[in-house]
Amino acid sequence: MTTPLSPHLDAAEIERWADGLLPADRTMHLAECPGCLATAERERKLSRELAQLPHFAPSAGFADRVLAKARIPTPSGEFGRE
């Protein structure tokens, strides 16, 4: 009879593993569980790819230009009348 695997890693544990902060007993689970290892490696690859994307920052005055074009209806005064 084989020893059952420890519980699968959750998302927080996979993130700690990618940061090198996962405890040894949980890291050992990755060596025993191909499914968890595949998931962890996909997550790490995705994190690396996202980190390489350029950071987006709107140009100066963007919010002011958007708000200047926004049409905010004025209350008609119909509500609250008896």
Tell me what you see in this structure.
The chain is mainly alpha-helical and 82 residues long. It has one domain (11-69). It is built from 4 helices and no strands. The mean pLDDT is 85.
What is the approximate shape?
elongated
The strand count comes to 0
Residue fraction in strands? under 5%
**Which sheet architecture does the biggest sheet show?**
none
Helix percentage range: 40-55%
Supply Rg: 25 Å
Supply the number of helical segments. Answer: 4
Taken together, the total number of domains comes to 1
Parts with pLDDT < 50 across at least 5 consecutive residues: none
Q: Average pLDDT across residues?
A: 85
**Class by SSE composition:** mainly alpha
SSE string, helix = H, strand = E? HHHH
For the termini, the CA-CA separation is 79 Å
Question: Summed up, what is this model?
Answer:
It contains four helices and no strands. The protein is 52% helix and 0% strand.
